[in-house]
Amino acid sequence: MNDDVNLEDLIDRYLNGELDDVDKEWLAFRLDSDAKARQEFVEFVNWDTEIRSALNQNASSASNLLPGEVGFRALSKKDGSGKLSSSSLVLAVTIAFCLAIVVNQLMFRGDRKQQEPTELAPRQLPASIARVTGLNGDLIWTGDRGQIVRSPKVGMELAGGTIEGLAPDSWFELRFNDGSTVMISGSSLLTFGDDGQKVLRLREGHLSGKVSPQPKGKPMVVSTRSAVLNVLGTQFNMEANLSSTDLMVSEGSVRFKRFSDGKEVVVEAQHQVTTDHEKGLLPIPVPRSAFNWKSRVDGQVGNYGKWKPATLDTPASLKAIPLVPAENPDVTLYLAGMSVNRSDGSPVVVMPHSQFVVRGKMRSESRVYFGIRVKHPNGEYAGMFRGDLKNQQPITKIDETGRFEAVYQLKQFTIDPVVVARRGGNASSPDGLVLDGVWAFTHTKDPSGLEIFDVELLPPSN
Amino acid sequence: MSNVNDQRDRIAKEAMGYRIELIAYARALVGDHATAEDIVQQAILVVFDKYEQFREGTSMLAWCRGIVRIEVLRFKGRRSKERTLAVCLLDDAISAAYEEFQTQRRSEELDAWRSALRECLNRVSERGRGVMQARFVDGLGYSQIAEQLEMTIEAVRKSLFRHKKKLRSCVEASKRQDL
């Protein structure tokens, strides 16, 4: 192979995520030192992008003709190119949906008077497909002719769009017109629409759904980067990040397809499945509850903060990052949050008299506030609680290296004031409920340098 | 007020005209098409908010690329992965390559070019389209495409290479015809 072919291969493998750091350095060197290589790189990527765009346009046209067929098709080995069209359609629908939102924002967000209907061009107002039934924390909703709403309100009628939870204590519940509800929590991003068939895309984060029976041939479709779910009427929880999707079904069943190899399975009640297993796609029974848990601070989905790798003398940590609460824009909190997952998928249950231990470091001594979010065993939101309010949290002492260890007894936990007014109520205490997320923050004038090494839930000693 | 809206809409619309170029740039930095599209979607919202910062007479594409670059860095930060030295070097080299070789094209010229590309795509065999669809739209790796289409990995690689080359020749031929 000549140099050109080598370079093309190198670029191709780079875009495919196959280069290690040595090869990346080599590619950087080639680009730095050779104008022809730079030109070839730009042209290569541009061609790929243009081809994708052109193919997508065709796929979008096809999807417009077949709204009811967004779902699974048999993907037999002998099916030729047609076997790929199912995921293409789902992707095309979601991509087209996202693009439509952006185009709407750009074209219609300006002066509303310009948008008044005229006799020549009567404008169809988008019909409401769902209503906001509960929310908390920092959220941004984008949709409905380009509106960008920083703090949506309970009762708002929505015609679709994208909702983004910006903080670990964010959650958002939506009730579709047929009574189906979906809820995202933590740092999550969900796009939703209903044009006779509910189509959702969870880009990342947690989603729980309680879905009423759907019309025949028009299941609710929930897609992520790595999988697509067909839901006919059931209760489920799912979590998605860049590389994987986990699903746990509480009631009914969900058809689950992994994009990477086209394999699909039906996940029955009290079973779970993940795209992460390289070989099989095998639903397994939901494991029994665990009563202890220790956090992972690496790049796991739902974490909020900046991950810092371990050094010789410091463990890896999640550094608190600024958060300006929507309801109090004059305040800047420094907050780190983590979602709760055990590697075996077992739910983590908070027992009476359990305690949380938070370990980390700070630049100076200050109060470390601590909160948790819990859910019912079926995945439904149960409440948010704070471990620092019942008795004034003492200032957390640090040692000479800035490290600290703060303990929060479960009996001290009280309902988080921000959810007291929530419709549908909160559990009165977190006892016996499933831990869903934890967060710690400081409220100091300047950045406190708060870094969390780990958070541990310890069961009652007896 | 109306002038302000006009200016904002004009700039946003012009930026939207470069969406595919911006996706190409973002993809060069993040590797993944879908992520690149999300990043550009976010960047265009930033353009909408920061339109006043665009200096008339300068390159809109270059300005938007700067915004995409920031969004890429934010995205990489959110993934909580430390950028290694190699990644930093490569990101810088890629950005330099784009500044040098990604040029603004007139919209009519682009429209004609894209129309020719779509036309040429229609001439690709069904199997060839299947391979390209799997690679570019579904984002599958070579081994996954090979398994799905019962081909060898090398055959998939060669098929893509061959079809891309054919497409290029086809588009260039139709451009020559237009002249």
Task: Please provide a written account of the structure.
Chain A has 462 residues and is of the alpha+beta class. Chain A is built from four helices and 28 strands. The longest helix of chain A is centred in the first third of the chain and has 31 residues, at 35-65. Chain A starts with a helix and ends with a strand. Mean pLDDT of chain A is 76; it is low at 1-5 and 60-125. Chain B has helices at 2-16, 19-30, 33-49, 60-78, 85-101, 107-122, 126-137, 142-149, 153-178. At the A-B interface, helix 1, helix 2, helix 3 and helix 4 of A face helix 1, helix 2, helix 3, helix 5 and helix 6 of B.
The largest interface is: A-B, 74 and 75 residues
User: Helix count of chain A?
Assistant: 4
Mean pLDDT of chain A: 76
Backbone shape of chain A: globular
The second-level CATH architecture of the largest domain in chain B is Orthogonal Bundle
**What's the CATH topology name of the largest domain in chain A?**
Jelly Rolls
Flag low-confidence runs of chain B. Answer: none
Biggest sheet of chain A: strands, sense, closure? 16 strands, mixed
**Total domain units of chain B:** 2
CATH C-level class of the largest domain in chain A: Mainly Beta
Question: Which key features would you list for this structure?
Answer:
heterodimer, A: 462 residues, alpha+beta, Jelly Rolls, 3 domains, 16-stranded mixed sheet, six-stranded antiparallel sheet, 28 strands, 34% strand, globular, disordered N terminus, B: 179 residues, mainly alpha, Rna Polymerase Sigma Factor, Chain: A, Arc Repressor Mutant, subunit A, 9 helices
